[in-house]
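Researcher: We plan to redesign the surface later, but first we want a full-length starting point. Tokens attached.
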């Protein structure tokens, strides 16, 4: 799974190279249809090559050689693809890059100069870093999400259990409460347990601070009082990145935990993108640092003036080839590319025809 910088590097490396870019749909799980993806892929390849032979015969042989490399890389998969989708890029000389991806894609076989990158943008969003903290009053687990994988990094527990001393010096109170030298053992036990819990919370906070870095979201799944205690001990920058994950559930399966992390990343990105879009919309006009609409946004990108490109998910999904020039200019110039869905995506369609840019300098 490529993050935004790796996608930029891949595009820049191959931007002047004729390549085939293939997206495969591996979501079919009917045993009777286990090779349906291969038949559909071969049909698309045949259509592409037939079209090139009629319209661009000079490219047909190069495309056929590129697709041969794709086919060779797929040879081990005789039945189902092992993941919901697969993507690969090949030049006439070699397979340049390929990977299995965890979200479904429509089948697409493409030929052109430079890889087709717009359909891949939803995957980039999944590559975001996140810490997941699952914690209650006696235990805390800290997971790190990176490039679509969730890994357990730390486990914290309340280690001590206070037991009332027995033998000499132990007395029975009138109410039947065991005590030591006249002090209720129950109070001592509660005090010791509270101290042990606070030590665990402090260890969890230290783990968060150590692993959060400069940009990781922090998803906290904890009872309300524990979440309040943890957040209160974090620095202001970390507090702004805390997301409420609801009650802790240590029994979740690995796939359910990963799904929870992905949902949190999506919600965090929506919140971040909406804030940036509001900033752009408030900074439009002469001398401003915001642009919207197809023409002005593409102009800013071509002049290396845009530091960030916002694209509506609706535009990218329904018109990837129309969006591709914008994304390529952003990758070429080093602008951040953000695929906006939810409220930010809807507003972007209303106010900017699906496109907006934040400028490095006024133009």
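Model: Full-length starting sequence:
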């Amino acid at each position: 799974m490529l993050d935004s910088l790796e996608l930029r590097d891949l595009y820049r490396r191959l931007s002047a190279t004729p390549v085939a870019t293939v997206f495969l749909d591996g979501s079919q799980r009917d045993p009777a249809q286990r090779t349906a993806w291969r038949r559909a892929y071969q049909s698309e390849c045949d259509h592409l090559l037939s079209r090139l032979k009629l319209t661009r015969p000079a490219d047909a042989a190069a495309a056929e050689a590129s697709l041969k490399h794709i086919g060779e890389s797929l040879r081990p998969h005789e039945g189902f693809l092992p993941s919901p989708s697969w993507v690969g890029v090949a030049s006439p000389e070699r397979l340049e890059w390929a990977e299995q991806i965890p979200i479904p894609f429509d089948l697409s076989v493409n030929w052109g100069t430079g890889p087709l990158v717009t359909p891949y943008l939803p995957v980039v969003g999944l590559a975001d870093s996140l810490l997941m903290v699952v914690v209650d009053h006696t235990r805390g687990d800290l997971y790190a999400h990176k490039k679509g994988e969730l890994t357990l990094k730390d486990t914290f527990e309340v280690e001590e259990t206070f037991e009332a001393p027995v033998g000499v010096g132990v007395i029975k109170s009138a109410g039947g409460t065991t005590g030591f030298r006249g002090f209720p053992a129950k109070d001592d036990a509660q005090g010791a347990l509270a101290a042990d819990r606070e030590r665990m919370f402090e260890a969890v906070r230290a783990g968060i601070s150590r692993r959060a870095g400069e940009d990781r979201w922090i998803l906290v799944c904890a009872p309300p009082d524990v979440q309040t205690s943890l957040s209160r001990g974090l620095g202001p920058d970390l507090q702004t990145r805390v997301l409420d994950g609801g009650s802790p559930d240590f029994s979740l399966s690995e796939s359910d935990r990963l799904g929870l992390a992905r949902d949190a990343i999506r919600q965090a990105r929506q919140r971040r993108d909406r804030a940036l879009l509001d900033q752009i919309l408030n900074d439009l006009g002469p001398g401003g640092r915001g642009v919207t609409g197809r023409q002005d946004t593409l102009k800013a990108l071509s002049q290396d003036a845009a530091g960030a490109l916002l694209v509506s998910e609706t535009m990218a999904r329904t018109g990837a080839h129309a969006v591709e020039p914008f994304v390529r200019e952003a990758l070429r110039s080093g602008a951040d590319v953000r695929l906006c869905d939810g409220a930010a995506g809807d507003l972007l369609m209303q106010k900017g025809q699906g496109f907006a840019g934040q400028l490095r300098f006024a133009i």
